[in-house]
Automatic annotation (TrEMBL):
Pathway note: Secondary metabolite biosynthesis
Binding site for heme: C439
UniProt-listed PROSITE patterns: CYTOCHROME_P450
Official protein name in the record: Cytochrome P450
Length: 495
């Protein structure tokens, strides 16, 4: 044997030994700290079904920013800091971009076929590619001529019946999203697709809260027959019927319109007409991608705009400051446009604070560590297949990052350090997901919120509340203020 071959074999053996030793070392490391569980079931009974972000935040005061809990042997890692989220979900996105597949949502309801639940791999990359073709920051600019007339309808609604501002906001967002996703023109609140989308959002928000359904904690319950009438089986049947209709019906409507030559330009129409040899697998992906477009996009933007209305009703001094900025820039002869955005720093700061103050997604949709990888972080062991939950609410209410975090303070984004960097970070980096799972519709959602916010500030005074106490926020994955009433009156200016 030549010396060079011997050296190569020796090096390979040495590398193999090093890998084995490192793996053994990793498996000897302790788990991150966390609340003590019970034998066999672990922390299954400790996982909160409502407002989980608040419980996780309280735990962090005792256990730190990285917490381990378990449920029937399933490890769950909760990340309560920007540093931990970035270290794992961003810098190690290649191994932290899978999705857990809850029994209730995935198997019993059918979300296993949804791109939201795809594991990291070719199908997920194809889904991201489809969305990038229409929702990249560059492409979204092409949708702006559609957005501006829609916001005009919102303003007319607010002027005519301001007490129904919730309905006007939902109709504005839905009419925009449905036209872009399916070429569907929403006429009013009774539109059947609008009602269906709202129900899907409500169902999904309830489905993905860890521990919300006992079958996710005790998987053997999936075998309980439906005829027994147990509550989770009844709910699963209802949710499954709604999601099946939401996936199939709007897609088939576009196909029928293409066949008759009446289809309007849309995301779905583009997918169908630009795909040769449309296969069943193609159609399955297209149906789900289009459904995700209109359901995910609609409720999140509605929630953000509802929070904006509430914030303005509670903080008239912030509202006046933004209105003065708008008036100085555009006068009284026109409304602001997208081109004005860079010259409205205080309005931009209000939008940022809306995202931070009561975030639409207080916790990110859970990630999962690859099932064949055990990771090491800060001398802790992260077991393979761990469910990883990023507590965005905790980050955006960390007083070291955002001083006085429970105050609504747009001014926090206007300060600069000696190097010219913004003192408080832009909360959008925490509001739209992380790593390879960041929301593909972020640019469109942000555009939609901006044009509505700046238009409402230009033409109306919002507030005060008609109740003594501010409304609570709903306790699920997509969180928004519960119903409230406030005055919305026209400003004395020429539109």
């Amino acid at each position: 044997m030549s010396l060079s071959v011997f050296n190569a074999l020796f090096a390979a053996a040495g590398f193999t030994l090093l890998v084995v030793l490192l793996r053994k070392r990793t498996h000897r490391l302790p788990l991150p700290p966390g609340p003590q569980g019970y034998p066999l079931i672990g922390n299954a009974l400790d996982i909160p079904a409502k407002y989980p972000w608040l419980t996780y935040f309280e735990w962090s005061k005792t256990f730190g920013d990285v917490i381990h809990i378990s449920a029937l042997g399933q490890s769950i890692i909760i990340l309560n800091s920007a540093e931990a989220i970035s270290d794992l979900l961003e810098r190690k996105s290649s191994i932290y971009s899978d999705r857990p597949l809850p029994i209730m949502a995935g198997e019993l309801v059918g979300y296993k076929d949804s791109p939201i639940m795809f594991q990291n791999g070719p199908r997920h990359r194809e889904f991201r590619r489809l969305f990038s073709e229409v929702l990249s920051a560059r492409k979204v600019k092409e949708w702006r001529p559609v957005q501006e007339p829609k916001v005009g309808s919102l303003l007319k609604g607010l002027a005519g019946s301001p007490i129904e501002f919730h309905e006007h906001i939902r109709l504005f967002v839905a009419s925009l999203i449905f036209e872009l996703s399916h070429g569907h023109i929403v006429q009013d609140e009774d539109d059947p697709l609008l009602k269906m989308a709202k129900q899907v959002d409500n169902d999904y928000s309830e489905l993905v809260i860890p521990g919300n359904f006992l079958v996710d904690v005790f998987p053997f319950l999936r075998y309980v027959p439906e005829w027994t009438g147990v509550k989770f089986k009844r709910k699963a049947a209802q949710f499954r019927q709604t999601i099946t209709e939401a996936v199939d019906w709007p897609y088939q409507q576009v196909k029928d319109q293409i066949a008759t030559g009446t289809a309007l330009p849309s995301f779905t129409q583009n997918l169908i007409e630009n795909t040769e040899n449309l296969t069943k697998e193609n159609e399955k992906l297209f149906k789900w991608a289009a459904m995700v477009f209109f359901t995910a996009g609609a409720d999140t933007s509605v929630s953000a705009l509802s929070s904006f209305i509430l914030a303005m009703a509670l903080h008239p001094e912030k509202q006046r400051k933004a209105q003065e900025e708008i008036d100085r820039l555009v006068g009284t002869e026109r409304r602001p446009t997208f081109e004005d955005r860079s010259q409205l720093p205080y309005v931009e700061s209000i939008i940022k604070e809306v995202y931070r103050w009561n975030p639409v997604g207080p916790i990110a949709v859970p990630h999962k560590l690859s099932s064949d990888t055990t990771d090491e972080y800060r001398q802790w062991r992260i077991p393979k297949g761990s469910v990883v939950i990023a507590n965005s609410w905790a980050v955006m209410h960390n007083e070291e990052i955002y001083p006085s975090p429970f105050e609504f303070s747009p001014e926090r984004y206007l300060g600069r350090d000696p190097s010219g960097n913004q003192v408080n970070p832009d909360p959008r980096k925490f509001a739209f997901g992380y790593g390879r799972r960041v929301c593909p519709g972020q640019a469109l959602a942000d555009d939609t919120v901006y044009i509505a916010v700046v238009s409402i500030l230009t033409l109306f005074n919002v507030g005060p509340l008609k109740s003594e106490d501010a409304p609570k926020y709903t306790p699920y994955l997509i969180s928004h203020p519960e119903a409230f009433e406030c005055d919305i009156t026209p400003r004395t200016r020429v539109s």
